[in-house]
Structure formats: C-alpha cells, structure tokens
Amino acid sequence: MKRLLIPILTLLFALACTPDNGGDGGGSNGGGYKPTGKITVKGTVYGGDGPLNDVVVSDGLICVKTNANGYFEMDTDLANAKFVMVSTPAGYAAPIDEETKVPLFFHRITSEERKADLCVARFNLVKITDSDPNRYTMIIGADPQPRASSANFDKNAYHALDICKDLYRDMRETAANITDREVYGMMLGDIVHENMGLFTNYINDGLKTLGFPVFNVIGNHDNDKSAADDVQGRRKFEEHFGPTYYSFNIGKQHYIVLDNLIMKKEGNNLTAYDQGLTDEIWQWMENDLRYVDRSTTIMVAAHSPMFMLTDLSDRSQSGGTHHGKDYSTLLAKYAKVHAWAGHTHTTFNYNYEAGHRFENIEVHTLARSTGELWTNEYLANGTPRGYTVVEVDGDEIEWYFKPTEYQTAKYTGSTKPQPTFAHRDYTFNESGVAMLDGKKLSADYQMKVYAPGTYTDTYANLVENKGSKSKYIYVDVFYWDNKWEKPKYNGATMSQVVAKDAYSLANYELKNHYYTYGYTLKESTDYFDPNPKAKTLYHTLFRAYESKDSGTGTVTVKDRFGNEYSRTISW
User: Fold this and answer.
1) I need a labelling partner for 540 at 20 to 30 A (CA). Which of 3, 127, 332, 564 fits?
2) Burial of 305 (0-12, 13-18, 19+ CB in 10 A)
3) With respect to CATH, is domain 2-127 assigned 3.40.50.1240?
4) What is the CATH code of the structural domain delimited by 446-502+537-571?
5) Model pTM above 0.90
6) Superfamily assignment of 135-445+503-536 in CATH?
C-alpha cells in the first residue's frame, strides 16, 4: 500500500496544478491532455552530496516537486512531450555539455522511452561553493543573427560571422575580468538568420569560447523556414539547445525563458508569426509560477517584447497577442518583474508609472548586439554594437550598456565608397580596437554628443536637405529611462526631445549612405524609408541651446544607480 501511495498523491497533485484553460483538446498545443492515471515519467534530482528536495521538474506542461529523496514522477503524454526539465534551484547549476557548452537542465525523451511508455530522467546538479550564489553577473545579448558570408545581403559592409566573433571576444574578456562572482549569459534570440547550419558556428565561435554558461532564447529567425508548422520549426533549435521554454533560479531571482512567437506559413516559408504564447506554453508558465513566492523578482526573457513598445502601446493588452492578458495579469502579482527582449533592433527601457497596475514591471528591449542589420555596421538604430551587463547582489539589480571594443572584422563590402562616419566619435586603430579620446572604448561610453550646428531642425528637413542646422547641442543617452536624471549641459538640465520628433543622426548617416551606394540596399525600398512617419520613435534624445559659434561644453548624466558619465565636446 505504501508503494502505491506516492504515485496516487503525485497524480492528484499534477491534476491540481494543471488547470483547464480552454486548450484545443490535444495535438501540438497539448493544452487538452487528460491524465491516464499512470506514471510515465519518473526520476531523481541530486546536487552536491545528496538528493534535493522541493525542486520543480516539468515535462513542458505539468510541473511537480521532488520529495525528500529527490524523487519525482508525472503522468505525461509521451507522444507529444519532448523534454523533462528541471528548474535549477538557487545555489546550484546545471552541468555543461562538454561538446556544445549548453547547460544540461533537460533530458531528451527518446524514441525507446516512448515505445516503453516510461521515461526515467536523472539530474545531477552542481553545487555552487566558490562564491556567494546570491551575487552574480548576467551578460545579455540580442540578435547576433548571422548569415552565410556568401549570402547576398551579407556583402554590403562586414560579414556578420566576423562581427559575431568580435562580440564573443568582448563578452569573453568582460567575463574574465569578473572574478568575485559567478557569470552567466543569455542570448535573446535570432541567434542565426534562417540558416540552421550556422547554429554550429554559434556553438564553436561563441558558446565554446565564452567561459560561462549561456541560456538561449528562440527567435523567429531561429525557426526552420522549410518546416511545416510552429512545432516542426523549432526542431533544429531544440536539437542544439534543448527546450524553447523553461525556467531556472539564480540567487534570489526566478528566470522564465519563453518562446513567444507562434510561427506560421507565409507562402511556402515558415516566416510569418503571431505574437504571444501557445496554450501549452501558457499553461506551463502558469504551473511553473505556482511554485514561486509572490515576493520573488521574476526575470522573464523572450525574443519579442512582451509589454510596452516604443510607440507606447502595450503588446500584452493587444487582442492579437495570444495569452497576453493572461501572462500580464499573472506577472503583475509579483514583487518585481524585469522583462527582457530583443527582436526590434532598438534599445528601449521603460518603467510603468506609479499606480499603474503594472508598476512592478520594467521593460528592457535590447538593440542588435552586432549592429545595423544588413551591414553589421557600428550601430543598430542609434545604439552602438554591444550588450547589457546585469549585476546582481541579493535583491539589488543593476545594469549598464557595454559597447563592443573591437572591429577586427575587415570591410569586405561591395559598397563604394566606404562611409566616413562624420558622426561616429570613436575610431578603430590598426589592431581593430575602438579608441575614444586616446583610450580604449569602455563601459564609460553611455551616450553620443552632437555639437551645435550638427542636427537639422526636423527629420523631414534633413531627408529633404533643406532647413537650417540647429543651434542646439544634442545628446543620445543610449539606455536612458525615467529613473535616470535628465542629462545636463554645463550644469543646466537639458530638455527631452519629444519622441515623435526625435531621431538618431548617426543612424540616418549610416543608412542613407548604404541606401545611396549599396549594391543591394539601394534597390531595397524597405531598408531605408525617408518618410519620417515610418521611423521608430526615440525616447533617449535631449538637447540644450548654445548661442556660441565656437566653444567647448560638457554633458553629464547620472543613471538610476548613481553612476555619472560625462562627455566634453568642442566645435
């Protein structure tokens, strides 16, 4: 009788934590799976010297906890489930695959296990003993998105694969200089650009070289465009990196990684998509969070932004976002939520105002880490090549932009002449090292300052090459949000340019050059649209009037964590 008691109790618990949310009755969504009453998945979780109690384990839909012996079991639909995954508890880490350097927090369900109708998964986690597990650094990149160097749109300037190597080198050196805490990484999707063969380049040039484990997010371009549907589209990603949605704990934070683009056919290719979560992913997320105390800080990562967008519309509240209102309502119940995403190739940090029902949620949208999409040039829509470094100490979370310090990639573009970059304020020396004011470019570079007489009064006049140059000094503070102080020019607070009127002059310069001279881009009407109404809204541009025709001025800005940055410019 004692032997039967555990399966029965586990089954009842699994039923209780798997709500009926209107699934389709089975199939790829899995939301309508009805338990059969038998155990099809079982296993153990160990860590350090013995079994681990109260560790959450999931089959991608059901979530259960281990008992005092580290044991778990589930009534799983093995015909549709792909993985058994452990939500790594705080103080422990998943072992790393020796070949790929991917964190092994998952067990792949084999065809033999399906035939036997029984999967046995054993997890041996690594206990963190060399440092305080509550202090760590998370290095986050987005959209490296390389194409093959022979691809048509990879011949305009720099090969994406070469720029990726510079990015990984910079990340590796940043991590190597952090010796007092654990370092982890996250890549926010579009790891490749529709070329599934390049996943091996990411593994060889990136994951194997970085020196820290990276958690990977699937992007729309990481789906196999030749596949039949969303489920099939993920398979190549899953073969290399495991599940496309999962959770883990580091320190006091609970991380949730989501696949939030539902792929669908566009003609013969699987390249179109809907925003949001499938029924299966939503039910898993809801079940996972049942085990997370509401006082916990949630770090949720997806490829496409889940909440506020640059046009100040909230994606989670759109009727077209699958389960958007569900996941936003659930996350609003937690003490603090940081929502990380890429996809837009634009930097955007946003805090909901006090009193808003989402005031606990902060939005962090990262620009493309490898620069402008079709040229892999030095910026992406106003933000230089780079990534985000998040430093965590217990409940305290800080972050900053880290520009990539290298451009060892050679200019191989067919675009002639090569841009001169009147508005780039750093240069690359003969070794491909970015230099600014005689020093190596560093994390002190948080803004771009433009001298008076540089900006045209309006974007429309800039495009049409008319109107006068502004007598204002402008500054673009890359990661500014409303918890920063407004920048100051010679001690006086600068005015924020209204987002609909703001634009990046450096970005315009780059795109206009390649649109004018690029052998493919000048033929592409969707690369550079001079219509000012079609441009992305900017929230990070400030200005101050300067009456002098020549002089020197200093812009300073203090971020939300008390760090002060300054740039002095002469004209």
Assistant:
1) 332
2) buried
3) no
4) 2.60.40
5) yes
6) Metallo-dependent phosphatases (3.60.21.10)
